[in-house]
Design goal:
By secondary structure, the protein is of the alpha/beta class. It folds into three domains: 85 residues, Nucleic acid-binding proteins (OB fold (Dihydrolipoamide Acetyltransferase, E2P)), CATH 2.40.50.140; 149 residues, Rossmann fold, CATH 3.40.50; 47 residues, Ribonucleotide Reductase Protein R1, domain 1, CATH 1.10.40.50. The chain contains nine helices and 13 strands.
């Protein structure tokens, strides 16, 4: 395999320099299944797992490889297996909080150039959810591109595109129909040789159908919507796929839940309009409630700022503040455990010193 086909370039080669004297070789994570990996390397496809040292030094889930990551591996002689020794610094990372109550980062896709945010022009269409995807994509460092799928089913396509553009703030919006193979030519500029795209969206928006169209073959399983209009989980794992255009796409399972990750700074990329209004308020610490000279409340009363959009902004802000408190609690607990271990070690050493006989 030629690694340049998978996005390897001079920048990655420079990042890999410290591992060359160790006899390690670069590889890219193509699929993950419960901390077992499929990697692409110059030796071909290899199954891989992290070393014991890697596992011991990893402090959280986000320290482990994710699909799209570049890693330093040691192929095992005579086997189609390898051991992962190190993770190269990520160029971009799309993250969310893991599902349920655990406060931990999950890296959904790494080292992607573009994120296709896919929404269906049926019962799936939801501007508030799209705003959430946009916030996390801007924060990831990748370029967001919005795909409005099932355009053939939409009676007022122009209106839906206009609604979407009102929250996109610079992100391109492309109406497409994966099933009817319409509008897909607009996606080709993002899928050139060595470019990596991550495809994200809810279950049932047509991601697998789009992947099959881009691949030119029926590789990914597809399914119909349920009776309640919600999508079915067809794709069960993340996978890096090579396209005939020379680009790569990371297919992801549908996400019913997209919890925020990061701090309040992440909101600036997706809510530039509200941030700009906040800067115009008379008081720097304005809470945008009943204060005099509040530019946000003025924009709401005049209809220049959509109330639903503003409520969504406040909702994400509350989530991020709650996340920050949970992270502080976790750090305090980790610090407490660390010092307890240090104290126990010191006591054991002192006891051993007292009992030592020359």
């Amino acid at each position: 395999m030629n690694l340049t086909e998978f996005g390897w370039d001079a920048t990655w080669d420079q990042a890999f320099e410290p591992y060359k004297p160790q006899g390690l070789v670069p590889a890219r994570i193509a699929r993950e299944e419960k901390e077992l990996y499929l990697v692409y390397s110059e030796q071909g496809e290899l199954s891989a797992e992290v070393t014991g040292k890697f596992r011991h030094e990893a402090r959280s889930r986000s320290d482990f490889p994710a699909v799209g990551d570049w890693v330093a591996v040691q192929p095992l002689p005579g086997e189609e297996r390898a051991m992962i020794h190190a993770l190269l610094p990520r160029k971009t990372r799309f993250s969310r909080k893991v599902a349920w109550v655990k406060t931990e980062e999950q890296v959904v896709a790494a080292n992607v150039d573009t994120v296709f945010l896919m929404s269906g022009l049926d019962r799936d269409f939801n501007l508030r959810r799209l705003e959430r995807y946009l916030v996390l994509t801007w924060d990831s460092g990748a370029r967001p591109v919005i795909l409005l799928n099932k355009s053939d089913l939409c009676p007022d396509l122009a209106a839906k595109v206009a609604e979407t553009e009102s929250v996109a703030f610079g992100a391109p919006v492309h109406p497409v129909s994966a099933r009817e193979n319409q509008g897909l030519e607009a996606l080709l500029p993002y899928l050139g040789p060595g470019s990596t795209v991550a495809l994200l969206g809810s279950s049932g928006v047509g991601k697998s159908t789009l992947i099959n169209r881009l691949l030119g073959e029926e590789r990914q399983a597809t399914g119909e919507l349920r009776e309640d209009g919600r999508g079915r989980h067809i794709t069960s794992s993340r996978e890096l796929l090579f396209l005939p255009t020379g680009g790569l796409v990371i297919d992801n399972p549908g996400m019913r839940e997209l919890q925020m990750w990061g701090d309040e700074e992440v909101l600036k990329g997706g809510f530039e309009d509200i941030e700009a209004l906040s800067a115009q308020c008379r008081f720097r610490d304005c809470r945008h409630e009943k204060e005099l000279g509040c530019a946000v409340q003025e924009a709401l009363s005049e209809g220049r700022l959509d109330s639903g959009r503003y409520r969504n902004y406040l909702k994400m802000q509350r989530e991020l503040r709650f996340l920050a408190r949970r992270q502080d609690q976790r750090l305090r607990q980790e610090e407490k455990v660390k010092w307890k271990k240090i104290t126990q070690w010191q006591k054991a050493r002192e006891k051993a010193r007292q009992n030592w006989k020359p």
